[in-house]
């Protein structure tokens, strides 16, 4: 089965080439890579055009910055693989774990798989206490509404059967995508699995973008997409 890797990208000049190389070298053999550049202004677009674009399936360029959710919406529409997985453009997540993440889908047991940073025995970089607390609260709140027992709603690694993700209208343009998509796959009755993954988090000095405003938006999205949609 073909795997589509969708990489939303915004101002990732320092890491985009390394993550593309890592995805290309990852153990899953049959894959297409789609990068959606969300109007980067740090030289990322030029690097994509000059060096990276010719070596992957497709690069799509947004003409104005819209956010991660908007980039994923664009990438999902362009996907042609049987399975679609999200890959951030930084180096926080390891593409060599694709095979274990999508294994429940390949086995015919799952429609959606979340890669959880908080289960299993894989390595994790130790970083921000308040971020960990916030992630736990958002997951708890989301689970209350969806009646799921997920451990990591805010994870990057989410894999979908293509017909599932392409049938869902994604409304959120920024990081609200995470609680939105969780609510929508839960409402559809999708078979959802979790797989433990490693996590090599980065600091704000290293380019981390998510902030407290995104956390507040996530709370609103949990209520919005579970109650009013």
Automatic annotation (TrEMBL):
Stored InterPro entries: Glyco_trans_2-like (IPR001173), Glycosyltransferase_2 (IPR050256), Nucleotide-diphossugar_trans (IPR029044)
Keyword Transferase: yes
A GO term for molecular function: transferase activity
Domain (Glycosyltransferase 2-like) ranges: 4-167
Statement: the UniProt record of this protein carries the keyword Translocase: no
Position of the signal peptide: none
One protein family per Pfam: Glycos_transf_2
Coiled-coil intervals, chain numbering: none
Entry-linked PANTHER family: RFBJ PROTEIN, UNDECAPRENYL-PHOSPHATE 4-DEOXY-4-FORMAMIDO-L-ARABINOSE TRANSFERASE-RELATED
Protein known as: Glycosyl transferase
Keywords: Transferase
